[in-house]
Amino acid sequence: MGVKDILVFSAHGADYCTRSGGTIASYVKEGYKVHVIALSYGAHGESAGYWKQNPQGTLEHCCAIRKKESMNAAATLGASIEFLGWDDYPLTIDETRQRLLTKRVLDIRPEIVFTHWLEDPTNPDHSNTGKAVVMALNSSSQLGALPDTPSHYYPNLYFFESTVPMSEFNQFSPDFYIDITDTHAQKLDAIAKFECQPHLSKYYIHFASHRGLQASVWSKSDIQYAEGFKRFVPYIGKTLPLTQR
Ligand SMILES: [Zn+2]
Predict the structure, then answer these.
(1) How far is the CA of 114 from the centre of ligand 1 (A)?
(2) Tens digit of pLDDT for each residue in 99-123?
(3) Rounded to two decimals, what is the model's pTM?
(4) Residue 115 host element (H or E)
(5) What is the radius of gyration, based on Cα positions, of the chain?
(6) What residues does each domain of the chain span?
C-alpha cells in the first residue's frame, strides 16, 4: 500500500492546528502524508498579539511572523504546509483563486480532506473557505476540470470544529469524534508556536475536554480529549461502520 494523502485547507494560519491538530498527528503516526494549505496568515483578524506588541508593526512583518509560527506548528505535527498568502478579514475567493484550489486538489489527489464548516456567521472567512473547498472538490471530480489533468474521485470530506467557542451559533454538531488523548500533548506543543494568539491553548484544551466527554458518554469508554468532525460525503459500503471501543 502506498502512502495515503490527506489535504487540510485552513482559512488562517492556526485554524488547521487548533481544530484538527490531534487528528493530524495521529494520521502522521499511521503513515499518512498530511499536507496543509493555509489560504491566509490571519494577519488582519487573528494576530492580535502581534499588533499589541508591535503598535508600529507592518502587515509584511506580521505575515512573516505568522508564517514562521504556522510552519513550526505544522512541523511539530509532522505535516507539510504551504501558504497562498491571501488577505483575511475579508478572505474572498474569486474564480482565479477557486481554480487554484482545484489545481492543488488535482496535484495532491488526497484520500481525505479536512476544512471549515459551511455555516459560520461568527467568522465568514471560515465558511468562505469551506464553501470554496466544496467547490474545488466538486470541480476536481469532473472530467475537464483542468483539461490537461485527469480528474480525481470525490475524497472523504470532513468539516472540523467551527469557530470556537461559538459552535451553537454556527449550528455545528459533530457526527464523528476522534480520540486524540494520545496526541493531545503534541497538539498543545504545536498550538504553543502561535505566540500571536496566546488564548488558543485555553480555548482548545476546554473544547477537546468537552468533545472528549461527549465521546465518552456515547461510547461508554474513557476518552479524555477528542476532536469533533462532521462528515460531508456519505459513507458507502456493504455494511455500516462500527464505533470503535
Ligand atoms: Zn481562523
Answers:
(1) 14
(2) 999 999 999 999 999 999 999 999 9
(3) 0.96
(4) strand 112-115
(5) 18
(6) 5-231
